[in-house]
Amino acid sequence: MRKGADGKRETPMNVEAVHLGKRFGSRVAVDDLSFTLEPGSITGFLGPNGAGKTTTLRLMLGLARGSGQTLFAGKSLSAYRPGTPVVGCHLQPRAFHPKRRARAHLDMLGRIHSVSPQRIDEVLAEVGLTDVANQRAGGFSLGMAQRLGLAAAILARPPVLFLDEPMNGLDAHAVYWFRTFLRSYADQGHVVFVSSHLMSEMQLLADRVIIIARGRLVADEKMETLLQRYGKPEVLARADDNGRLVAELHRMGIAAHLRDDGFVVADVDDTGIVATAATTAAVKLLELRQERSSLEQVYLELTAQSQEFVPSRSTP
Ligand SMILES: Nc1ncnc2c1ncn2[C@@H]1O[C@H](COP(=O)(O)OP(=O)(O)OP(=O)(O)O)[C@@H](O)[C@H]1O
């Protein structure tokens, strides 16, 4: 159970997007999208460039007009009293006046929700900006700007957080910090909804995944279920004679190939089959393990037909 901005305990909030739709002229940007976001979990929002992620977030926040509705604990945002902290968002990395100091930026936003000066200090410390709080935000690096955007989003401790590509351009330390921070925010019973193109990061971060392409829902699953359902199991092996191992696997009727990194990849889910092939071929195994396709491979397959922008010819 989480605490609200006033310190009272509140019940967790879920978010339902119901038949969302949006057109720009004849172009359908969001096409009848429905999904639910659960409290206490991080949902990754994925899709190729132009798939409609930002438009969907804007529709859900009431920043764009379209069809359908979004319910926060069963009510539309407009049904809450003005100033109620329902959803915090960070949609653009530099959504501040460049001449305004970081603390002044948060102070201005804090007035909407009657946030105390102590809370502003607390948030600055939480996102690691205390030392630069009196510097003009225009001089901030991308990483600092992303932290300030996050600070603004969590200022009133909203039960729901929407973040549009918050980890773009961040170095490894900052990405790790963001991941840890978002995990702890979700663990407090909050909804965290994050769009990103960073697949390996999403695989580490998200509990659930919503994938859209050309405005339509492609997948809406728990990360684990998605990888189980669409990810192929395969066995990776390295032997003292990879060529002979591949030849033996082929003789056994098993699809196998030698990868650039020196591993034999066999389309089976049992390491024992590859071990048997190695014994028969009289080759020594140096490594043997089972793997499942990564989120990146699953995503590429699921969205292969739906890229908006495809290079007209392959580059060398
Ligand atoms: N203001 C606008 N006017 C016209 N078309 C728009 C507008 N905003 C978005 N679109 C179009 O709507 C579609 C969805 O765009 P959107 O920015 O939501 O995609 P996205 O998934 O966030 O893309 P990216 O990953 O590249 O940020 C695209 O075809 C885009 O060109």
From TrEMBL:
Keyword Phosphoprotein part of the UniProt annotation: no
GO molecular function, one term: ATP binding
Database matches in InterPro entries: AAA+_ATPase, ABC_transporter-like_ATP-bd, ABC_transporter-like_CS, P-loop_NTPase
Keywords: ATP-binding, Nucleotide-binding, Transport
Domain ABC transporter intervals: 15-239
TM segment ranges: none
SMART domains registered for this protein in UniProt: AAA
Alphabetical list of PROSITE patterns matching this protein: ABC_TRANSPORTER_1 (PS00211), ABC_TRANSPORTER_2 (PS50893)
Family: Belongs to the ABC transporter superfamily.
Protein's recorded name: ABC transporter related protein
Species per Swiss-Prot/TrEMBL record: Acidothermus cellulolyticus (strain ATCC 43068 / DSM 8971 / 11B)
